[in-house]
Amino acid sequence: MTQATTPSAPASLTPALLGAVSVGVLTAVQARVNGQLGVNLEHPTAAAVISFASGLLLIAAISAMTSAGRRGAVALVRGIREHTIPWWMLAGGAAGAFTVATQSLAVGVVGVSLYTVGIVAGQTLGGLVLDRIGYGPGGAVAVTVPRLVGGVLALAAVGVVLVAGDGLAGVPVWMVILPVLVGVGLSWQQATNGRLRARVGTPLTATLANFFVGTAILTVLAVIATIVSGPPAAPPGEPWLYLGGALGVVYIVMSAAIVVRTGVLLFGLAAVSGQLLAALALDAAWPAPAGPGLLVEAITVAIGLASVSVAAFWRVRR
Description:
single chain, mainly alpha, two-stranded antiparallel ribbon, 10 helices, 76% helix
């Protein structure tokens, strides 16, 4: 019989959760950078290519200069040649390409917060399913009551924005649906990268594979978009608009290393909390044309943090 619900904060899990929160912060900042670059270039796919290509050059240089990166690259090539690494383990970059393209398309219009709460819903649902079927690198993770309640709270944060905020006024429905699909893709990408990292022995190589695949996909899309809609505008002069690739390298490396310890759902919830905190700060300092308002955003942040606290640090005693 269930007697009580008590806090449980395993010391070994706390650093991983703080790292996941940091991943969320970096994701929100990257979304704002790429979103503004897309607006300035008037060409979202060109902005996405710039972000991914710069990230690819950076992670390739780091991999070449480190012994772990070189060993991982050798293991990757050997695994592909010997068919011990299946093709779908290399496809995480497709989800990354979709994420960056969506950032460049939507964030400059709807703001980081409205974009982020859509990701909340997608990551929560995706994390629950992937953990349950055992897709992540740690195998099957039971959908316990605290984890389920944490997921429900994360979805409640989305509901607050949809019900109480005015952020959807004048925003096309597809711009709201896209972030939800991005969230599902991110959950899958994190789990896939974790599995690839386990095969090659380093998150550097998993990140390199992501950026290589993502850059190839986005380049093809950018060429098609340019033929159909015309070339991008002149490149903006602000240096910070070109930091999206570097931010992506950092958080993808961190994700591949951390998700092995936390599981997909718990990682996603912690990362979402970081995204919400960063989104609140970014939209307060730099409002987008559409947004739910700072009060509503603050409520979603509180609910998001509560979801992580419940899922990570509470257990049911019997």
